[in-house]
Predict the structure.
Amino acid sequence: MKKIDIKTSATIFDHLDELSKEDYTLMEKAVEARKKAYAPYSKFNVGCALLLDNGKIILGNNQESAAYPSGMCAERVAIWKAGSEYPNMIVKKIAITAASLNNTVSKPVGPCGACRQTLSEYEINQKENIEILFMGEVGKIIKTESLLSMLPFSFDSSYL
Ligand code: THU
């Protein structure tokens, strides 16, 4: 028997103005996307902005439905929008932000498990890390160096 330690690392920023210009701009775009979210049921608005290596920024936000499980997270809306438009794209980084109509979200909101799994498909295929930046509406911003660093023991096509 052997016990192993899984280590990961992240950078935590106290303020948006500590981000690089590129990261700051991308987060601003995620905020823009968040404001257009369609989330009348959860009242939890999420915005996502993807930076592609061709310089394009692709936006997405959560889209809900009266049949609750039929909605979709911002991250998957954005990555599928990008993948459908630019099939050979390389995603450099993703910024995510969330705000609630019920309270002020001050904890950084990372992508849910299903979104991590979906995003990992693209990171694996492109063989280049995707940096992930996430925040609430206010407060600290977390930046990780790759998607897979947030998803240990993940499932991928090699198991099929
Ligand atoms: N949501 C996202 O858009 N991204 C996540 O990673 C977590 C959750 C959305 C789904 C739903 O519309 C609302 O937030 C509440 O769960």
Observations:
- The radius of gyration is 16 Å.
- The helical segments are 21-34, 74-85, 113-126.
